[in-house]
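Hi support team,

I submitted a single chain yesterday and got back a structure, but I'm not sure I'm reading the token output correctly. Could someone confirm the output below corresponds to the sequence I sent? I've pasted both exactly as they appear in my results page.

Thanks,
R.
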Amino acid sequence: MPARTIDVLVKPNAKTSELSDNGDGTWTARIAAPPVDGKANEALIALVAKHFGCAKSRVTIKSGASGRRKRLVVEDGG
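Hi R., thanks for writing in. Yes, this is the structure output for that exact sequence:
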């Protein structure tokens, strides 16, 4: 399976971290980490990697690194 691209709306400072499919091709990520010093981005990458069963190194933020709407690339394998 080739790499997949997913659009994610990130909501930092949540009580727990969870990733949910909105059913329209977009995802919502509730992240417990604050949006400070890249901590929310690191937590998002870890959450997406766990959900898709791949290594964190296989998940990259393609666009939106400083905003709440992000486009991530999840590579297969690893």
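A quick pointer for reading it: Residues 4-74 form a domain with the Conserved Hypothetical Protein Mth637; Chain: A; fold (CATH 3.30.1200.10). Let us know if anything else looks off.

Best,
Support desk
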